[in-house]
Amino acid sequence: MRKKLRLNRVLGWCTLVFIILITIIPFVWTIRTALTPNSQIFSGDYSLIPPDATWINFKRVLGLVSIEEDLAAGGSGAQMYFWLYLRNSIIFTALLVIGQVITSSMAGYAFARLRFPGREALFAILLTGMMIPPIFIVLPNFVLIKNAGLLNTFTGLLAPYFFVSPFAIFFLRQFFLSIPREVEEAAKLDGAGYWYTFRKIVVPMSATPITTIAIIQAVFAWNEYLWPQLVGKEHTVRLLNVALAAFQQASPSTKPDWAGLMAAATLQMLPMLLVILIFGKKLVGSIGLTSAK
Fold this sequence. Notes:
Number of strands: 0
Distance between the termini: 33 Å
Number of helices: 14
Structural class: mainly alpha
Shape: globular
Radius of gyration: 24 Å
Order of helices and strands: HHHHHHHHHHHHHH
């Protein structure tokens, strides 16, 4: 019996290590390529640390070198406007998270505690939104935004995402259902209404799942590509994800600027990587608690 348990444990650890490796290797190779001069990317050297590691690719992306230095390093001379696109991505992500957290938490509480005709049917209809592939609603949304004259605006970028998210509502509703009714009934006896109870009692008690939803939506917003590519092509609203594709297209097809692209991709993924490293434990714990409830 003990041998079987030990074997299962060894197999479990081997599987876990394998999954971690296939997850980390692409990130490691991205950073490795970003530190490699363009002329040495296809030299046949596959060591973990490039022999002539350099920061020039990061400097090119951040606009810290001249066009002549950029061309000498194997770049195309195209400007990245990294700080502008970073600002746009931060604005887009922050507004989306604020909008979805506020509206989804209110909707989740309404479905968990309020009694109104058609509540269950409306909740079932809402959940069907989780089953519809996002690509199916891109064209109708694009036509609507175009007819409203909102192309190349933050309003157009945020319109399909700013309000409630079916997943966020379902996630928060499950947690709200686990809150003891006695707490809310005591507040009601003291004269508190639903709105006061929600703001002053339920929200503070639900800080962990609300933070979890904020993190999940932040990662989604930061990595969103298709919709920003269609709606926000101007520099003033272009997101960092879209800018990476434009940066790749600016280099000659016969000699792509892979090192510069990987440097930009490394900088692009750092903010969300830090968020996951800081809040990852809380995220996993909250998801497990909510699913158990």
